[in-house]
Inverse folding.
């Protein structure tokens, strides 16, 4: 293919990924919005807070695949650009093998935890001690762990620049989650069964999408003989770097509910979690706009098209920042109406919390294209350093100021820390790398 043809195909893939992503991720985010009012009424403030805390734990535990998933996306994107399908099959098979071992070990550890807990070591969430709390958290963690190796198919679709297809499958999973959750509430199942009905559907749908995709693309279908010890070690090697970055970023961005639960109790989590969930709509925009760049950058780097990478990165930073700013203004303006209509009540400091979370999302949108380049090029050193400083600084300040301030101090600290620490470090390191490549 000519360079111009590759560029047009790459741009079409990004546009399709963005449009399909908005549809798929909108439905995926709508699912918890739909069930949350019913869950709040069914579980009560305390039970709802435990569930939200458990969700935060799974968000913080995204790193438990040891970075193999992100490493796989980086390697597959390069192989796809080089049209190396045999290499792709080998990396896919090696990823499945490695993540299955990881999931098996984690499930074993979870069983040990359950046995210990039922032997008299209850789970404490804030000021609340309850075996019911333990069960809710255990169910969320178990389903999450089972989904770790199954989620390989998402990375495969991303690398093939079929993000829109992955999101279509997510629509099916999210829809089934809502249906089964509301049915479970309707027939008055126990709280943990209701949560299981909600959480398990996406995992089942991922299994179905795996069978379908590899049936349509036999050239990528992994076999046992495709497993490569060398590729498995390579995934672990690059995964360690992604692991370090994921541990730090996931903890830094998802520790808020745990800090509030520890300092103020599980009931206080609800007042923060509701506006935070509304602000996560901006997270949808950021992820949808910029995730297609990861695979596209990888393919472009494999073809040495550095000029396109730099040009697209700068344009997307400006465009994405303006889009998220506009969406944030609209969200804050309508927040009172939306939250009252959605939850049937208002929450203390909900506007302030939402404003500062929107500011954080705007800053993340500006830096996201630079992050995608660093991820595609497997350059995480600068990100790891910056995020570690962010984690230590922001968590310390939040824990200290929460004792004398309202909960809006939590997102304000996050936004200011991101502005001072993360944004300049990411932009500088990305521009330094791409300028060096262009010159050489």
């Amino acid at each position: 293919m000519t360079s111009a043809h590759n560029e047009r195909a790459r741009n079409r893939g990004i546009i399709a990924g963005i449009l399909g992503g908005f549809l798929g991720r909108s439905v995926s985010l709508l699912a918890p919005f739909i069930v949350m009012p019913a869950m709040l009424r069914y579980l009560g403030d305390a039970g709802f807070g435990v569930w939200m805390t458990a969700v935060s734990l799974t968000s913080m535990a995204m790193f438990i695949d040891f970075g193999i998933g992100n490493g796989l996306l980086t390697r597959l994107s390069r192989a796809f650009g080089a049209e190396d399908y045999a290499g792709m099959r080998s990396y896919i098979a090696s990823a499945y093998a490695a993540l299955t071992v990881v999931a098996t070990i984690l499930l074993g550890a979870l069983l040990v935890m359950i046995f210990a807990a039922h032997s008299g070591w209850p789970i404490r969430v804030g000021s609340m001690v309850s075996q019911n709390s333990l069960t809710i958290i255990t169910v969320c963690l178990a389903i999450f762990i089972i989904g770790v190796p199954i989620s390989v198919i998402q990375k495969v679709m991303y690398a093939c620049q079929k993000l829109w297809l992955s999101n279509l499958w997510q629509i099916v999973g999210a829809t089934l989650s809502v249906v089964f959750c509301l049915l479970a509430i309707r027939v008055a199942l126990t709280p943990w069964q209701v949560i299981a009905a909600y959480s398990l559907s996406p995992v089942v749908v991922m299994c179905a999408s795996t069978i379908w995709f590899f049936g349509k693309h036999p050239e990528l279908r992994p076999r046992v003989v495709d497993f490569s010890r060398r590729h498995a070690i390579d995934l672990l090697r690059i995964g360690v770097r992604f692991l370090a970055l994921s541990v730090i970023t996931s903890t830094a961005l998802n520790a808020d509910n745990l800090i509030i639960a520890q300092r103020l109790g599980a009931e206080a989590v609800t007042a923060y979690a509701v506006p935070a969930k509304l602000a996560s709509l901006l997270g949808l925009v950021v992820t949808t706009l910029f995730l297609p760049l990861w695979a596209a950058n990888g393919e472009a780097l494999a073809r040495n098209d550095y000029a396109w990478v730099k040009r697209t990165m700068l344009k997307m930073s400006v465009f994405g920042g303006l889009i998220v700013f506009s969406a944030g203004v609209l969200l804050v303006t309508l927040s009172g109406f939306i939250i009252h209509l959605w939850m049937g009540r208002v929450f203390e400091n909900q506007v302030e919390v939402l404003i500062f979370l929107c500011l954080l999302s705007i800053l993340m949108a500006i830096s996201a294209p630079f992050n995608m380049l660093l991820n595609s090029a497997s350059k995480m050193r600068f990100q790891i350093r910056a995020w570690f400083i962010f984690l230590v600084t922001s968590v310390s300040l939040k824990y200290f100021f929460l004792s004398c301030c309202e909960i809006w101090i939590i997102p304000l600290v996050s936004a200011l820390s991101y502005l001072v620490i993360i944004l300049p470090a990411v932009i500088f390191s990305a521009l330094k790398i791409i300028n060096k490549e262009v010159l050489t």
About this structure: The first strand starts at residue 124 and ends at 125. Residues 3-439 form one domain. Residues 297 and 373 are 6 Å apart (CA to CA).
